[in-house]
């Protein structure tokens, strides 16, 4: 009986018809998924007959369709300059930037502007070596400008280390170092750099530096350009892939920085990534042609929504947000963005300069500019002048406390040696001394004369005696006493020392 | 034993139960053990407590990935592109570190004596043999000249590229001292800058689109070729067929940031039955009050172009300032330049002056470039009496 039932169950579940239906559905699903994954080429093939027909039947639009169809199917003419020294040919269509560039040997130009950065370089090269993007496809270019420390020496020794690694796949591609001094008016300490008045000219100068680096470093064969500051403390190894696979023209991560405990743990750092607001546009209208709006200063309240504040620690790192201005800590852009002329304006472009204006300019040139609100990299913490003062004070305070403790210990010892501690003895002796003294006797009343006025002396005496009498008789008579002497109404209200309600 | 037997029997008997029971078990296990950060109220306290501590623990916990959103797994298997026929790896030498001191790079009036490199850039829509011969007759030392071309992605571009290939091959396989320092040829990616035939291309309504794509091509050419050695950039159009052989020496001697020569055209005058010359490039101009007034009334996305009666700006045009009685070296201050024959100090481009492909102060392409250079603090000059010649257009 049971046997038959089991058979029936099997039969209904695994009947040939259900299997075949499920099979077709599954194959359909996987086939469509596969087709969509390589959709661009498929789309071209599907639409080709249509374009062909349109060319044949509408001669007016032939010029445009012709060019587009040749670009898809016929390889355009490629000259051969193999044997000609000093002649290079590049088809820019091959360097548009793929979203899976690490699989397609897309070359990245890694641009790093440096100024007095010797102390940060070891950390930077540590990050660089850990990066998972194929190192051979990364071309490094540095601009060393106006440095008073040994940035150049540290850079060279680090680079030589990197390029002499045993594992050849760990070595980087082409490395170029450029030197150019622009004449630095403003100091490099945190407060110098981030003071309000210094921002406009400073940003314009930095923009010039970036442009010099970008324009000389970019080659026709670069597909992507990555701009990075050296002072990034924590960054995922896969930063390139993480940014690249979004397939956007310009993309930036969110930038925060850790803080010491006494300042509250962590803080948004890069406020240059924002989306334009009405308030920002209105403010821009009121400013002069050469003025530069800088974010994060109360002088210019723009009410823009900043990428940094959009962060949710548990948010999806893949989430995107459209931006108008961007910060320069870590920018990944398709090389075509820079090649077609977008750059870091060293003049006031729509009331902005440098990276923020780069965002605006790229938008103007119809490129998309994207920020990742929940994908955070961490800038180092550099104390400001106030922070330094506070830290100095904290150090001083710590020292002082230590000193104080030592002194206290020392004094404690002195006291122990110099004085006999009899407090415990006294505790025990006191009881035996005092046990024979009776505090409750009425003849022990102590009378103290507090008055200064000799004329009222008698009167006062009488009053005091009276009040004492009242007190002895109980609280109830207090009111009567005050009625007799309205001038000294406060006396009876005082509770006498020996007042004992139980004895009444 | 009996109970379990009963259960298995029930399971076997009841089909719905047989399917649902494992599912419910799996779901309950998942909910109780793995799904504890979904925001159910009993766990919220736990989460708010955890999220800050997690971030402060170790530096690795600063990373943006959580247990909910894990690090994406990337495949590093190489994908071969059969269309890709250029081998960049051959160019890049392994472990190569190069240093360039740009502080020592100058653009001076004695360019040839100081061995300053000049980059001649040409957007090549059509290859004219006369253009190439004119380049070859320049007397500036060829080892200091680099050439850059960008070719549109069309069939006419194919033709131009084939002719250019032949010409370049001939020169570069010649004697060593006759070769140019470097020749870079680029094929534009998608948008072609000469979609339109000669006649249409000067129509006012297509100007914006045409010049916008032209600006993109110029920028692509410029920023791909400008290198750490480049001191000067000479923009020379593909249809400039006659210049003095000392063109580069003459123009660099002025030592100006941006300097435009006056572009004329030779033609056969049917009335006089003789060949004559006429002004050709009207993009070299000084700003006028009327021009500024026009601009202030325009929408943000509109542009002013010269040479059209629809937009009468009354700007003083350099083309009309040509005066044979005056010295050739006479300079005039300009506000807009054309791309016919314009010499630019490389630092102007490096500072960021490029060819806007969008209306920049209602100007576009080369004229927009002039405005941007001015915004960066550079002055622009023209040589009204220094003539170069545009090719005669035969299809008019």
From TrEMBL, chain A:
Biased composition range(s): Low complexity: 464-474
Disordered as annotated region, ranges: 447-504
Keyword Hydrolase listed: no
GO biological process: cell wall mannoprotein biosynthetic process; protein N-linked glycosylation
Lineage: Eukaryota, Fungi, Dikarya, Ascomycota, Saccharomycotina
Listed GO CC annotations: endoplasmic reticulum membrane; mannan polymerase complex
Name of one Pfam family that matches: Anp1
Family: Belongs to the ANP1/MMN9/VAN1 family.
InterPro entries, per the entry: Mannan_Polymerase_Subunit, Nucleotide-diphossugar_trans
Source organism superkingdom: Eukaryota
Molecular-function GO terms, alphabetical: alpha-1,6-mannosyltransferase activity
Name of the featured protein: Mannan polymerase II complex ANP1 subunit
Record's keyword terms, sorted: Golgi apparatus, Membrane, Signal-anchor, Transmembrane, Transmembrane helix
Transmembrane feature ranges: 12-32
Species in which this protein is naturally found: Naumovozyma dairenensis (strain ATCC 10597 / BCRC 20456 / CBS 421 / NBRC 0211 / NRRL Y-12639) (Saccharomyces dairenensis)
Membrane topology: Single-pass type II membrane protein
Intracellular or extracellular location(s): Endoplasmic reticulum membrane; Golgi apparatus membrane
TrEMBL record, chain B:
Transmembrane regions: 15-34
A GO biological process held by the record: cell wall mannoprotein biosynthetic process
Location relative to the cell: Endoplasmic reticulum membrane; Golgi apparatus membrane
Entry-linked InterPro entries: Mannan_Polymerase_Subunit (IPR052086), Nucleotide-diphossugar_trans (IPR029044)
Keyword Transmembrane helix belongs to the record: yes
Topology term for the membrane: Single-pass type II membrane protein
Alphabetical keyword list: Golgi apparatus, Membrane, Signal-anchor, Transmembrane, Transmembrane helix
Family: Belongs to the ANP1/MMN9/VAN1 family.
Stated name of the protein: Uncharacterized protein
Naturally occurring in which organism (per UniProt): Naumovozyma dairenensis (strain ATCC 10597 / BCRC 20456 / CBS 421 / NBRC 0211 / NRRL Y-12639) (Saccharomyces dairenensis)
């Amino acid at each position: 009986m049971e046997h038959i039932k089991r058979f029936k169950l099997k039969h209904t579940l695994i009947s040939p018809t259900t299997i075949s239906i499920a099979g077709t559905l599954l194959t359909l699903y996987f086939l469509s998924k596969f087709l969509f994954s390589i959709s661009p080429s498929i789309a071209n093939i599907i639409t080709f007959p249509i374009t062909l027909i349109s060319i044949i039947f509408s001669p007016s639009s032939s010029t445009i369709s012709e060019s587009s169809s040749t670009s898809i199917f016929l390889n355009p003419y490629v000259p051969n300059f193999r044997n000609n020294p000093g002649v290079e040919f590049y088809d820019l269509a091959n360097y548009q930037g793929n979203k899976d560039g690490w699989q397609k040997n897309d070359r990245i130009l890694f641009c790093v502007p440096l100024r007095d950065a010797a102390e940060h370089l070891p950390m930077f090269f540590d990050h660089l070596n850990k990066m998972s993007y194929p190192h051979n496809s990364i071309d490094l270019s540095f601009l060393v400008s106006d440095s008073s420390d040994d940035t150049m020496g540290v850079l060279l020794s680090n680079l030589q280390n990197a390029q002499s690694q045993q594992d050849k796949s760990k070595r980087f591609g082409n490395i170029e170092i450029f030197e150019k001094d622009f004449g630095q008016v403003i100091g490099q300490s945190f407060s110098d750099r981030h003071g309000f008045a210094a921002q406009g000219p400073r940003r314009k100068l930095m923009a010039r530096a970036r442009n010099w680096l970008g324009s000389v470093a970019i080659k026709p064969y670069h597909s992507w350009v990555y701009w990075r500051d050296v002072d990034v403390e924590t960054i995922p190894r896969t930063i390139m892939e993480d940014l690249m696979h979004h397939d956007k023209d310009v993309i930036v991560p969110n930038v925060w920085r850790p803080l010491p405990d006494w300042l509250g743990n962590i803080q948004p750092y890069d406020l240059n990534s924002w989306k334009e607001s009405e308030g920002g546009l209105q403010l821009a209208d009121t400013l002069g042609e050469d003025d530069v709006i800088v974010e994060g200063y109360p002088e210019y309240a723009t009410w823009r929504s900043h990428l940094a504040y959009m962060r949710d620690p548990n948010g999806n790192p893949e989430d995107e947000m459209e931006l108008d201005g961007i910060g320069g800590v870590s920018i990944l852009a398709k090389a075509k963005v820079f090649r077609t002329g977008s750059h870091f304006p060293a003049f006031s472009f729509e009331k902005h300069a440098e990276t923020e204006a780069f965002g605006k300019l790229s938008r103007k040139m119809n490129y998309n500019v994207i920020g990742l609100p929940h994908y955070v990299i961490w800038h180092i913490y550099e104390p400001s002048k106030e922070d330094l003062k506070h830290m100095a004070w904290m150090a001083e305070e710590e020292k002082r406390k230590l000193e104080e403790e030592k002194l206290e210990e020392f004094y404690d010892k002195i006291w122990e040696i110099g004085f006999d501690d009899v407090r415990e003895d006294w505790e025990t002796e006191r009881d035996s001394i005092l046990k024979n003294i009776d505090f409750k006797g009425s003849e022990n009343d102590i009378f103290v004369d507090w008055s200064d006025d000799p004329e009222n002396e008698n009167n006062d005496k009488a009053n005091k005696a009276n009040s004492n009498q009242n007190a002895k008789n109980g609280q109830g008579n207090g009111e009567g006493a005050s009625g007799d002497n309205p001038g000294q109404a406060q006396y009876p209200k005082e509770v006498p020392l020996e007042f004992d309600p139980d004895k009444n | 034993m009996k109970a379990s037997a009963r259960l298995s029997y029930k399971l076997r008997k009841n089909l719905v139960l047989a399917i649902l029971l494992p599912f419910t078990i799996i779901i309950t296990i998942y909910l109780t053990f793995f799904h504890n950060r979904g925001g159910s109220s009993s766990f919220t306290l736990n989460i708010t407590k955890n999220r800050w501590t997690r971030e402060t623990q170790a530096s690795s916990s600063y990373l943006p990935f959580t247990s909910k959103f894990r690090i994406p797994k990337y495949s590093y298997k190489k994908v071969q592109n059969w269309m890709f026929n250029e081998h960049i790896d051959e160019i890049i030498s392994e472990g190569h570190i190069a240093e360039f001191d740009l502080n020592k790079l100058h653009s001076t009036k004695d360019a040839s004596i100081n061995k300053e490199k000049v980059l001649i850039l040409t957007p090549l829509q059509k290859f004219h043999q006369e253009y190439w011969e004119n380049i070859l007759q320049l007397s500036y030392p060829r080892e200091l000249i680099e050439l850059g071309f960008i070719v549109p992605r069309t069939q006419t571009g194919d033709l131009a590229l084939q002719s250019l290939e032949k010409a370049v091959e001939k020169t570069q396989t010649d004697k060593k001292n006759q070769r140019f320092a470097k020749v870079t040829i680029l094929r534009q990616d998608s948008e072609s800058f000469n979609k339109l035939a000669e006649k249409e291309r000067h129509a006012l309504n297509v100007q914006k689109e045409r010049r916008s794509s032209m600006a993109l091509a110029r920028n692509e050419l410029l920023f791909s070729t400008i290198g750490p050695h480049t001191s000067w950039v000479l923009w020379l159009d593909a249809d400039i067929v006659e210049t003095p052989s000392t063109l580069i020496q003459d123009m660099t001697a002025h030592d100006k940031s941006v300097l435009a020569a006056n572009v004329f055209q030779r033609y056969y005058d049917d009335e006089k039955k003789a060949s004559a010359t006429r002004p050709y490039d009207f993009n070299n101009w000084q700003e006028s009050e009327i021009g500024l007034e026009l601009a202030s009334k325009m929408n943000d996305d509109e542009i002013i172009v010269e040479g059209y009666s629809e937009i009468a700006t009354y700007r003083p045009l350099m083309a009309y300032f040509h005066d044979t009685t005056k010295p050739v070296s006479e300079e005039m201050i300009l506000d807009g330049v054309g791309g016919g024959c314009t010499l630019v100090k490389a630092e102007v481009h490096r500072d960021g002056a490029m060819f806007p492909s969008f209306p920049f102060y209602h100007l576009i392409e080369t004229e927009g470039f002039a405005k941007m250079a001015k915004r960066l603090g550079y002055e622009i000059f023209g040589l009204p009496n220094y003539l170069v010649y545009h090719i005669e257009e035969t299809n008019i």
